[in-house]
Specification:
Chain A is α/β, with parallel strands linked by helices. Chain A is 26% helix and 31% strand. In chain A, strand 8 and strand 9 (167-174) form a beta hairpin. In chain A, helix 2 crosses helix 5. In chain B, the strands form three sheets. A seven-stranded parallel β-sheet of chain B has the order 5-9-4-1-2-3-10, with helices on both faces. Chain B has a five-stranded parallel β-sheet with strand order 13-12-14-15-16. Classes of the chains: A alpha/beta (254), B alpha/beta (322). Chains A and B meet through helix 3, helix 4, strand 7, strand 8 and strand 9 of A and helix 3, helix 4, strand 5, strand 7 and strand 8 of B. Bound molecules: flavin-adenine dinucleotide.
Amino acid sequence: MKCLIPVKRVIDFNVKVRVKSDGTGVETDQVKMSMNPFDEVALEEAVRLKEKVIVKEIIAISIGVSSAQETCRVALARGADRAILIETNVETNEMPPLSIAKILKYFVLQEKPDLVILGKQAIDDDCNQTGQMLAALLGWAQGTNASGLNVNASTGSVEVIREVDGGLETLSLKLPAVVSVDLRLNEPRYISLPNIMKAKSKPLQIIPMGDLKIELKQHLKTIQVEPPVMRRSGIKVNNAKELVDKLRNEAKVL
Amino acid sequence: MKVNRVLVLAEHDNQTLKVSTANTVRAATELSEDITVLVAGYQCAAVAKAASLLDGVNEVWVSDLPCFEHGLAENVAELMIDLAEAFQYILAPATTYGKNILPRVAARLDVAQISEITGILSPDTFVRPIYAGNALLTIQSLDPIKVITVRSTAFEAVSTGVVATKEPAPIVNLASKKPYDLGLSQFLREEPHVSKRPELTSARIVISGGRGLQSGENFKMLEEIADKLGAALGATRAAVDAGFVPNDYQIGQTGKVVAPDLYIAVGISGAIQHLAGMKDSKVIVAINKDADAPIFQVADYGLVGDLFEILPELSKELVIRK
Ligand SMILES: Cc1cc2nc3c(=O)[nH]c(=O)nc-3n(C[C@H](O)[C@H](O)[C@H](O)COP(=O)(O)OP(=O)(O)OC[C@H]3O[C@@H](n4cnc5c(N)ncnc54)[C@H](O)[C@@H]3O)c2cc1C
């Protein structure tokens, strides 16, 4: 089996994000960037399937500016066999998930993977759309929010345990399929130094976006980005009795 | 130009209509006076009836077929794509149900999908949180059909017909144009987490536990208080990851979003990813032994101390007044 793993370069989850004063976006200068944590989980799952000899080849693909090469190298160090970067002039955030899904579709048709595994959302735009859109454009089955994944190669299906609002749900998807993962699917391992070294010699193909004859439209226009209203911290109470009293008589919520 | 029409996808379990639908209808009322609710399910007549009683709804369309029993995204999306043409807006709750289906619909219509809006500024301009709520994005849609998921906590539910303020909207059974069972995915089983407590996302009071609780067993202390207050129980990702409580308790960037009148955070540090799911609560209480825990920066009432001493006291206080 072949796996395609889309990976996105985002502001690291530990960074306190700051809105630019001109309201056009958030500060990215001198800010630590990392692979979207959900995509790390997706990639780790593919590596585990490879270790179980279910998957033969793992291809990581990223769409983004030139510095997303770094993300591709991390993907290679995490166990992808090769990586593709579709180099764009704009930060990927300027492109809606639909455009990303269209580009991914192009490569799915070219590479013919049996399984696309990707993060259920990116922690920058929090959209939670790309996997579903890609599945729709391909006419494939989808399993979103996966916290369990079991490939049954003989029946050509994959069982996916999904985290849903009401609990857990298990679906069987016909392969090929798109699976979007939740964080509890696995815990990505640390990257070892030898793997970082090895990644340097693995193939990374860089394709300028302009070379792909994919027609993308403008669907959305950013009007502004602003910081949310900050909550102010209130008061400290000394004990449970005082707390209950405040909640009853001051806040009037009990 | 013809008047705007909105299609709202109802969320349900074939028996009951989820409140999130009533929140989504509220958002729809800000866009149009012509609102159709779509119920795709199996043996879901009770749901259609409940939808017909929602304030502001003009019509309920029902597609009652076995292939819709489990709300499989591929099948439901296919139906919606066939119906989309008559509408300028397609809305669904920003729950795991709506988020599963709507991007599929949008992609096939070749329009963007706008996720989890918290505000409507004009017929084509919307506000939504990004970066775990660290920034608010105002975005304009240039598409002819706007496909949107709606954050429930940002739109007050419309009246659900308990007080009969209006005639029920007509219920139209859709004739099936084609087989909607695409056979791409199949439902195998579910492990629903049933609780007698209020539903987390619509509860008036939520009490949540974090890693500080140390075990699932210790969550009983929170349950005791929850039962006294009629509260729902929530948790951090750390508490869910550690197996203290099931996944559907998780509140935050990647879990549920709540905005109750009162949120009590116990043994929770206040990571930005957790705050993303609760910082719009009216009153926040934090109980934490670390006076520097970031949760205190958003708390209206902070109590610094050991939760294992405070929780029994709190429980006692709540009894005395009963
Ligand atoms: C991509 C991504 C998405 C995430 N999504 C979510 C999400 O949706 N929801 C979420 O919650 N998290 C999420 N997280 C995790 C988040 O970053 C934090 O790790 C998590 O919220 C911490 O949970 P916690 O507060 O329970 O644990 P900790 O941070 O370990 O805090 C435990 C707290 O308990 C206090 N404590 C310990 N013992 C006691 C005691 N006896 N009495 C009183 N206080 C005590 C400690 O002082 C401490 O402040 C996400 C992380 C990432 C990277």
